[in-house]
Write a structure and sequence with these properties.
With 295 residues, the chain is of the alpha/beta class. It has nine helices and eight strands. It starts with 10 loop residues before the first strand and ends in a 6-residue tail after the last helix.
């Protein structure tokens, strides 16, 4: 990790990037349109893109002092890219966003205020579906009203990796993001911070528009991946007080999912079912792969 010689920069915004040549410009332009009376920087951390993402990043970094290119290609994974960004960052306040999302106006000063007041915060998020070929009109839906409650068993809340804000010293104390986790790394990060006695605070002043997946296969695959690595999380945090799960809990979750079969006439209902089905199958897959009882 980088030493504490932080110059005059107050906030560092870390953006992991992988094959985002079509989407990245919208996030970067939103950042460049932000106004704040303190000094801040944006670190675009390329995780080994095979498209033109690096060209897009370098074009911005050449023309905008605020934008910095970080080579994060040595190891695959969003966790490594975020950690590399913090290593190169100069700010004491650290914020994480994703390359394919778009911050709302006023997010930069809002997230900085939240970190200063509470040390560890999660942005408010809403969702949008966008086809960049026909412009960038954002029709948002489903705004978050708080932190995400872990519903497999009763445990700590969390939030997605996009929109988290934290003090650098806390990030360094817990060793950053777990680079061995391909998925659910944000949940793991939130839990490890809270286990240090630092609460995660929902900060609705800072809003991020999160891009959603449209295709059925993408939703199923996302659910599958999350389910598989949720089994690993459950195993990882058993020594830290996560409650034991019973067969009955697993059966109840399957029954709850299968009852949705009778309510699939709307697209959002079908999407919820498909993603949930992927998640439940992923949990079974993760139980076998990681040798843990997670029904």
């Amino acid at each position: 990790m980088k030493s504490s010689n932080l110059a005059d920069i107050s906030l560092s915004v870390i953006v992991p990037c992988f094959n985002e040549e079509d989407n990245l410009k919208f996030q970067v332009e939103a950042l460049l349109n932000e106004s704040w009376d303190e000094s801040w920087e944006v670190l675009l951390c390329d995780n080994g893109s095979t498209d033109s993402t690096v060209k897009v990043i370098k074009r911005y970094s050449r023309n905008e002092d605020k934008i910095k290119y970080v080579d994060a290609s040595k190891k695959k994974g969003v966790s490594y890219a975020r950690n590399r960004g913090v290593e190169e960052a100069q700010g004491e306040l650290i914020a994480f966003i994703d390359a394919d999302d778009i911050i709302a106006t006023g997010w930069v000063p809002a997230i900085a205020e939240g970190i200063r007041l509470h040390s560890f915060v999660a942005s408010k998020r809403d969702q949008f579906v966008n086809d960049n070929k026909v412009g960038n009109k954002i029709n948002t839906k489903n705004p978050s009203k708080g932190l995400i409650q872990y519903n497999y068993v009763d445990y700590l809340p969390f939030s997605g990796g996009c929109g988290l804000g934290i003090r650098r010293k806390i990030h360094e104390k817990i060793g950053g993001f777990d680079e061995e986790l391909i998925y659910c790394e944000d949940t793991d990060y939130c839990w490890r911070v809270q286990l240090q006695g630092i609460p995660l605070i929902f900060w609705p002043k800072a809003l991020v528009h999160v891009r959603t997946r449209e295709s059925t296969m993408d939703l199923f695959r996302q659910g599958l991946n999350w389910g598989e690595y949720n089994a690993l999380l459950y195993k990882k945090f058993k020594p830290y007080g996560i409650p034991n799960v019973s067969y009955l809990r697993g059966i109840k979750l399957w029954v709850k999912l299968l009852r949705r079969i009778f309510f699939l006439w709307k697209k959002w209902q079908r999407d919820t079912f498909i993603k949930g089905l992927g998640y439940r199958i992923g949990m079974l897959k993760g139980s076998i792969r990681f040798r843990v009882f997670a029904p």
